[in-house]
Amino acid sequence: MLHKTKAIILHNVDCNYNYSISYIFTEKFGIIPYLTDKIKNGKNEKSLFQPLSILKLEVEHRDLRKIQYIREAKIYIPLVSILNNPIKSTICIFLAGFISSVIKNRQSDKHLFNYIVQSIQFLELIDQNYANFHLAFMIRLSLFLGFYPDKTNYIEGMYFDMQNGVFVLQKPLHSHFLLSNESSVFVKLLRMNYKNMFKFRFNRHERMKITNKILEYYSLHLNSSLKTKAIEILHEILN
Known about the structure:
8 strands, CATH 2.40.50.140, alpha+beta, 5-stranded mixed barrel, 2 domains, 3-stranded antiparallel β-sheet
């Protein structure tokens, strides 16, 4: 049966010279692997299937088939700046891997899908001060997944209990928590958004540490170790 859906490219795996499998977050079905024809797409493949490209697809779905087929793929929102900017492209590679890891079994979720699309559009439009973009994206994404940190009762000197997602007065009995000085920085990060992210100043070491702590937080709540090959490249290029 044929369907039309908006879609976000996450990552691609080469099968052979002619075909690859694209893992795509679709508005209609959630994350689905699709067989893509590299010869048919030709020169358009780079712009069509780069990480976080936003497409409009006509797809063929069969219930018992593990890998579905794309009949037609068109660019839905052009990402000219991202495609031509190595820093933005690297941010997209990192975030595409991150999204793949945290929503890998996700079904259709229109609110989550729209959040990711709007975030990509924002990255496309800004021309500077995007070193903290991935931090703002990752923190806000936890809201859609149901474990956004609770800062309601925070006062200076508290510890952030990452396992339970709350700030506490005493050190937790487990090892997954932030010290009071780290917690003070983290609670400020919870106020970060795309409009004010340029006001947060971090050096390379600080940004790497924050990113790793956010990944640890996600790992705890998803019961899965999050690793992405792009993280070192991301930190190097944002230095």
